[in-house]
UniProtKB/TrEMBL annotation:
<feature type="transmembrane region" description="Helical">
    <location>
        <begin position="12"/>
        <end position="34"/>
    </location>
</feature>
<keyword id="KW-1003">Cell membrane</keyword>
<keyword id="KW-0378">Hydrolase</keyword>
<dbReference type="InterPro" id="IPR022919">
    <property type="entry name" value="Pept_M48_protease_HtpX"/>
</dbReference>
<feature type="binding site">
    <location>
        <position position="140"/>
    </location>
    <ligand>
        <name>Zn(2+)</name>
    </ligand>
</feature>
<keyword id="KW-0472">Membrane</keyword>
<feature type="transmembrane region" description="Helical">
    <location>
        <begin position="150"/>
        <end position="167"/>
    </location>
</feature>
<feature type="domain" description="Peptidase M48">
    <location>
        <begin position="74"/>
        <end position="293"/>
    </location>
</feature>
<keyword id="KW-0482">Metalloprotease</keyword>
<keyword id="KW-0862">Zinc</keyword>
<dbReference type="InterPro" id="IPR050083">
    <property type="entry name" value="HtpX_protease"/>
</dbReference>
<protein>
    <recommendedName>
        <fullName>Protease HtpX homolog</fullName>
        <ecNumber>3.4.24.-</ecNumber>
    </recommendedName>
</protein>
<feature type="binding site">
    <location>
        <position position="216"/>
    </location>
    <ligand>
        <name>Zn(2+)</name>
    </ligand>
</feature>
<keyword id="KW-1133">Transmembrane helix</keyword>
<comment type="similarity">
    <text>Belongs to the peptidase M48B family.</text>
</comment>
<keyword id="KW-0645">Protease</keyword>
<keyword id="KW-0479">Metal-binding</keyword>
Amino acid sequence: MRSRFQPDRQLTVRMVTTLFLLGLLYVAFVAVLIVLIKSWILVVVIVGGMFVAQYWFSDRLALFGMHGHIVTPEEEPHLHGVVDRLCAMADMPKPQVAVSRMDLPNAFATGRNADHAVVCVTTGLLRRLEPEELEGVLAHELSHVAHRDVAVITIASFLGVLAGLLVRFTFYSQLFGGRSRNDQNTAMLFALVMTVSAVVYALSFVLIRALSRYRELAADRSAALLTARPSALASALTKVTGDIARIPTEDLRTAQAFNAFFLTPAFGKGADVATLFSTHPSLERRLEQLAEISRQLGGGGVH
């Protein structure tokens, strides 16, 4: 799919590199599964089944987890109007539009490709943002769809999820079944499986978050250039980040599993998001980039 969103070669290189490195991890990971389960067929069924489920149903799973539902133009005429206008400006297919009945102010895009994409906003976001701010947020989410990084992050996340599940499976197998065998080789095998799975999980965790932080900067940049109003997106980011800090902690826990897909992460008070393990760059870094784009467009700095 070609659109008028500015292409980002660095994002493309990072996505390809991340998938390549994760592919190498896949090889080691599947080898561990074969050693553990001792059945090629069962390995293919387990890995293939989980991958297909996550890839094909990622949009439905995300909507279900965030209590979102698809809305029609009659139900949300203003929201659909903004999406229609932005899709026309970007020359891209219109994704489905959804609303999550949550006070948490946020938005996300999901789906395996442009023809099966969903852009979802929360009622908390709609209530807080001005029209120009909402346009900036929706342009940000649409750029994720146009750049295909939603599908890449979904695929990339799968390995980490699978590795984490294997760590738990191996741990409980050893805890409840390993001791009765009294076999030193078996114990060493389980220890090896645990170690490889943990390493795979840790490496995939770091790779995915590095990609996620860059893709957010890329989406900010593309949205600002498409709308030519970087200050509106900056205002939305500042407002949403500040309001999330005031959301009750128990309400944030439900949303934190989807942080990699959100406009801004659902962290509670005192969380340090400017770390190697964050899914998003810091607010300061994002505002600096938008201020620079504003100067390039001749609009001065972002205030």
